[in-house]
Write a structure and sequence with these properties.
Elements lengths: L2 E3 L5 E2 L1 H7 L8 E3 L15 H12 L5 H12 L10 E4 L3 E5 L9 H5 L2 H11 L6 E6 L3 H10 L6 E7 L5 H9 L5 E6 L3 H14 L6 E4 L5 H20 L9 E6 L4 H11 L4 E8 L4 H8 L1 E3 L20 H8 L4 H14 L1 E3 L9 E5 L2 H15 L5 H11 L7 E5 L7 H7 L8 H12 L8 H4 L8 E2 L1 H17 L1
Parallel strand pairs: 5-15, 6-7, 6-9, 7-8, 8-16, 10-11, 10-15, 11-14
Antiparallel strand pairs: 1-2, 1-3, 4-5, 12-13
Helix pairs in contact: 1-5, 2-3, 2-9, 6-7, 8-19, 9-10, 14-15, 14-16
The protein binds pyridoxal-5'-phosphate.
EC number: 4.2.3.1
GO cellular component, one term: cytoplasm
Pfam families: PALP, Thr_synth_N
Length: 481
Amino acid sequence: MMVKSTRSDERVTPSMAILNGLAKDGGLYVFESIPKIDIKQLTNASYTDVAKVVFGLLLDDFSQERLNDIIDQTYNSNLFHPAPITMTHHKNHSYLNLYHGETLAFKDMALSILPKLIQEAKQINGIDKPSIVLTATSGDTGSAALAGFQQNKDDYVFVLYPTQGVSSFQEKQMNQLQNDQCTVYAIDGNFDDCQTIVKTLFQSITLTNTTLVSANSINIGRLVPQITYYVYAYTKLVQDHVIPQLEPIDVVVPTGNFGNIYAAYIAKQMGVPFDTLTIASNTNNVLHDFFQTGSYTIKRPLYKTISPSMDIIISSNLERYLYTLFNHDASALQQAMTTLQSTGELHIDVVKHQTTFDSGMATEQETLQTIKDTFLNQGTVIDPHTAVGTYVYHHTPHNHHTIIVATASPFKFIDAMEDALDIEPSGDLQSRLQRFAGHVHIPFPARINHIASYTLEQKQILTKDEAMTIIRQKVGIIDEN
Ligand SMILES: *Cc1c(COP(=O)(O)O)cnc(C)c1O
């Protein structure tokens, strides 16, 4: 099967799409045809069994044997504890907990395996060069990429994050993961600025001895692992006797870059019985507006919220869905994207008539209140992103059992958790995290010990231009050696 650009007829193999990240024309890669999966056959399958089927169907120029090895090495290892995913069932909804990886957010599900997929993709294409990974982050991608790529000893990682736009825990976590080959930069700007720097560098740097790689969610190497957990989550609901086989369900996803929910959309097209997919936005509700009105307007202020990983205006992966809305007409989409760039707006008529997606949003106050209510009424502790999803779940119609995607551990967002649960924020990070664990009666995750006790050296904050110059220089030196 080939993978195609959203903006032209450019076609490449899945392994080349993983290596390229973006198409040469600036478009995103999409699967030309979506294979069907036999969900009934998978009812008693393990997580790795499901992964082997999904990866095998979509990455069909990889050998099944190598995929199986890579999948076992990732999801059957101590990278995930206690299991790749868990689910918590309530009366009409279940949480799909995706934060059991090394950096405690759902990004680990894909970024723990992406480095191995990249190695394998290089083998397949006879490329014998180290990678330079360049990535913008609103917090969680950065640490997950740093943790994931430490496996590839020859590769280099550069992470850019908005200095004011991540939680203190996220900032410590990223800085703590630095070493000779992995560098983190605090940028004086917001996430969209970081993303712009990365895009500009991608388009302007040419390398001879190394290759540039994207760890952002535009890479189909991130999409495939994310499809996997949706397929597995459905089979788990059947296994756990929450729903009968083939019963439709709804899914609510806290959404920023449209990566996670797009994976649910592909799972649905593969035949998983999903009915409505609900986008949950925070105050940065550009996607909610789009799905309600058909107008995508990116000239608006970016608010800093307590769910920072969704503080995004330019939602990169939306282009993949727009391609569907444009009936796969790449040149019409190319034109629309040019208009979007110059005017900051895009209008689509069909959005309100389509039935797959619904959307909602939660304000900061509603998010805090939801954390509190969910804890007091159900004893369930959810992070602010998951709380946005939970609020939207309660305020949108659902005719089926619903999966709410829990995207991060509450420990990563201690400020908001203390605020929501009226816990006094005193002492250092270590003692605050411990007090919080005691308050909510959940065990202190061993993997955060080293972050809690880490002191951030004084950090250097770079302007966009400074970052651009420094990274260009460093990449140049790496490439020469
Ligand atoms: C990245 C992230 C999101 C948003 O996911 P998208 O794929 O960008 O829509 C939501 N919650 C958390 C905790 C995240 O890290």
